[in-house]
Write a structure and sequence with these properties.
Layout (H helix, E strand, L loop, with lengths): L11 H11 L4 E5 L2 E4 H17 L7 E5 L4 H12 L3 E4 L6 H10 L4 E5 L3 H5 L7 H5 L1 E4 L7 E2 H6 L15 E6 L9 E5 H15 L6 E4 L6 H12 L3 E4 L5 H11 L3 E4 L1 H8 L14 E4 L6 H11 L4 E7 L2 E5 L14 E2 L4 E5 L12 E6 L6 E2 L3 H6 L1 E3 L5 E11 L5 E6 L4 E3 L2 E3 L1 H8 L5 E11 L3 E10 L7 H10 L9 E4 L13 H7 L4 E2 L1
Parallel strand pairs: 1-11, 3-4, 3-5, 5-6, 6-7, 10-11, 12-13, 13-14, 25-28, 26-27
Antiparallel strand pairs: 1-2, 8-9, 9-19, 14-15, 15-16, 17-18, 18-21, 20-21, 21-22, 23-24, 25-26
Helix pairs in contact: 1-2, 2-3, 8-9, 10-11, 11-12
C-alpha cells in the first residue's frame, strides 16, 4: 500500500531530544556535587554537537577522547553522538606508545582531553596525527593553545543539530584492553549500539525511574552501554571520578541507586567492606556482574547480601553482548550465564568447527544484533574471528570455551588461549581458580601454565592472601589439590601482593606468564 504518513526514524538523538523536553526537570547526570537536569543536559550536549559541526566535524569523523571520569566526559560523548561523529575513548592505563598507535590507527580528526591529562598528550603531540595537533579541545579546565570546552559551548547554538546520517555509520571505536598483547579497534555502529541498549533494557530491568551508578572507567564497553541504555529511557546516570568500595555503598544509599555494574574484583571489594550492614541498599534492583566470569563463592556472597533475584551476570565481550542469567533461574543455575538475549544466538564448536553435544566443551560463537561491524583496519583479525554457517551468516568467534546443559543454559569454562595442555589433556584454569577462591585464606587467585618436564605444562596458582601474616602456602596448595582432579593439581602456590589488572578488572595473565616463564617443575 501507499505510505500516507512518514513516521520519523527512532535514533538516539531523537530520543535524547524527547527527554530534554518531557523530562526537563528530572535529573539526567550526577557527578559529585554537580547535577544536571534533562533540560540542562540536552542544551549542553546540543552546544557541544553544534560546536563540533562548526569546526567542520562531519558524520563518521573520529574524535579521540583522553578523558577521566567526569561530567564533561559524558557531555562530550553525547555531543559527539548528536553530531553524528564517532567517539574513540582511550584507556588511560595504556602506555603512551599504545595511545599514539590507537589515535593514529583511528585517524582521529580531533582530540578532546581533560585538563589533568593535557600534559600527557602534549608530551607526545609531535607523534600524533596532524589533525590532532590542529584540533584539540580541553575539558574541565583550560590550557594554552587548546580550545576550552566552555568556550566551544559559549559560542554555539542550543538547538538540536540537524544531522542526517546512516545508522550504519560508526558510533564508537573501543580498543581492546590488551590482555592479548595487541589492541584492536572494535567498531560499533549507531545501529549496533541501539541494539545493545534495547536488548539490555528488559534484562537489566531498566526503566524511566532507573538511577544508574557507574564506577567503571568510561572508555570501557559496558560503561558506554550503561550511558546509552540509561539515557534511552530518560533515567539518571550517577558517576564517580574513581572507584571506592565504601563510597559506592554510600552513594547507593544517598542517591537511591537502582542499578550498579561491577567487575568481579570490584564486587569482591564491595562485599568485603566492614560494617556494610549499616547502609540502606533496598533501592537496588540490579547488581550487574560483567567483564569476566563470577566465581560461585563470590556469587553466593552477593546473593546473601542483595538477594538472588537482584544479581544479574551478563556474558559478552566488547565485540558483542550475548547472554545473561535470568535471576529466577539463578539459585539452581549458579554457575551458568543463562540464555541468549532477544534476537541473539550462540553455538559451541569443536576444533574442526563442528557443533558439540550437550555437556561437551566447545568454543562459543555468537550471532547478535549487538555484534560489532568489525575490527578497524584489521581484515586479518576479522577473518580470524569469523565462522560462517551454511546460510552464509558470519558468526563471531569469542575465544571462550563453554558448555551447554540439557536446558540450553550456557556455562563459560575458560578462555581458549588460557587453557593448559598437560599430558595431552586440556585443563581449564577457571575450574581450579573456582576451587582455590573458596579457601578462607585466599583473596584473589589466578592459575597459569608453567613448564613441566613430564607433562609439558602444569598449573601454577598465583595467590593474593587475605592476611599475608597468616598465610600457609603449603596448606593452601594441599587444600586445592585435594579438591581438584588429579590432572588439575597445582605444581605450586606463589604469593603476591597484587595481581596485574586492567582498569576494568580483568587479570592480565599474559604478564603473569611472562613473570613466571623461568619456572620449571618435574
Amino acid at each position: 500500500m501507499t505510505h500516507w504518513f512518514n513516521p520519523p526514524d527512532l535514533d538516539f538523538a531523537t530520543i535524547l531530544a524527547h527527554h530534554g523536553r518531557w523530562r526537563a526537570k528530572r535529573d539526567a547526570l550526577i557527578c559529585g556535587d554537580k547535577r544536571q537536569s534533562w533540560a540542562e543536559f540536552h542544551v549542553n550536549t546540543n552546544k557541544i554537537a553544534n560546536g563540533l559541526i562548526k569546526l567542520d566535524i562531519k558524520p563518521g569523523d573520529m574524535i579521540g577522547m583522553v578523558m577521566d571520569n567526569c561530567a564533561e566526559t559524558i557531555e562530550c560523548y553525547i555531543g559527539i553522538l548528536k553530531a553524528g561523529a564517532c567517539a574513540v575513548p582511550i584507556n588511560l592505563a595504556v602506555s603512551d606508545e599504545s595511545m599514539i598507535a590507537m589515535l593514529s590507527d583511528a585517524d582521529v580528526k580531533m582530540l578532546i582531553a581533560t585538563e589533568n591529562l593535557v600534559g600527557r598528550v602534549e608530551g607526545v603531540m609531535s607523534r600524533l596525527p596532524l589533525s590532532v595537533q590542529e584540533n584539540r579541545i580541553v575539558a574541565a579546565g583550560a590550557a594554552d593553545q587548546w580550545l576550552a570546552l566552555a568556550d566551544l559551548k559559549r559560542g554555539s547554538d542550543d538547538d538540536s543539530p540537524e544531522v542526517r546520517h546512516s545508522p550504519d555509520m560508526p558510533m564508537n571505536v573501543i580498543y581492546s584492553s590488551g590482555t592479548t598483547g595487541v589492541p584492536k579497534g572494535i567498531v560499533h555502529s549507531y545501529r549496533t549500539r541501539l541494539a545493545w541498549a534495547l536488548l539490555l533494557l528488559p534484562t537489566l530491568r531498566i526503566h524511566t525511574s532507573t538511577r544508574f551508578l557507574s564506577v567503571i572507567g568510561h572508555y570501557s564497553n559496558f560503561s558506554i552501554v550503561s550511558i546509552l541504555l540509561t539515557f534511552l529511557v530518560g533515567g539518571t546516570f550517577v558517576m564517580t571520578p574513581s572507584f571506592n568500595p565504601e563510597e559506592t555503598l554510600m552513594l547507593i544509599e544517598r542517591e537511591k541507586i537502582t542499578c550498579l555494574p561491577l567487575v568481579p574484583v570490584m564486587s569482591q571489594m564491595v562485599m568485603g567492606v566492614t560494617g556494610q550492614e549499616k547502609y540502606d541498599l533496598s533501592s537496588m534492583t540490579s547488581l550487574i556482574s560483567c567483564g569476566s566470569p563470577l566465581h560461585e563463592g563470590l556469587k553466593r556472597v552477593m546473593f546473601d547480601r542483595f538477594g538472588y533475584d537482584r544479581v544479574i551476570e551478563v556474558y559478552g565481550l566488547t565485540e558483542g553482548g550475548i547472554a545473561a542469567i535470568d535471576p529466577e533461574n539463578a539459585p539452581g543455575k549458579i554457575a551458568s550465564v543463562g540464555w541468549p538475549m532477544i534476537g541473539s544466538d550462540f553455538k559451541l564448536l569443536d576444533d574442526n568447527d563442528n557443533e558439540v553435544g550437550i555437556g561437551e566443551n566447545g568454543e562459543v560463537v555468537i550471532y547478535s544484533p549487538s555484534m560489532m561491524v568489525g575490527y578497524l583496519n584489521r581484515d586479518d583479525a576479522n577473518e580470524a574471528t569469523t565462522w560462517t554457517d551454511d546460510r552464509g551468516r558470519r558468526w563471531l568467534r569469542t575465544g571462550d570455551v563453554g558448555k551447554m546443559d540439557e536446558d540450553n543454559d550456557l556455562y563459560i569454562v575458560d578462555r581458549k588461549k588460557d587453557m593448559i595442555l598437560s599430558g595431552g589433556q586440556n585443563i581449564y584454569p577457571q575450574d581450579i581458580e573456582a576451587v582455590a577462591a573458596k579457601h578462607p585464606m585466599v583473596s584473589q587467585v589466578a592459575v597459569i601454565p608453567v613448564r613441566s618436564e613430564r607433562w609439558d605444562e602444569s598449573p601454577l596458582a598465583v595467590v593474593v592472601p587475605k592476611d599475608p601474616s597468616n598465610f600457609d602456602t603449603e596448606e593452601v596448595k594441599n587444600w586445592i589439590n585435594n579438591n581438584v582432579g588429579k590432572r588439575e593439581r597445582v605444581a605450586d602456590v606463589v604469593v603476591v601482593d597484587t595481581l596485574p589488572l586492567t582498569l576494568t578488572g580483568k587479570i592480565l595473565k599474559r604478564e603473569l606468564k611472562e613473570t613466571y616463564k623461568h619456572l620449571q617443575f618435574p
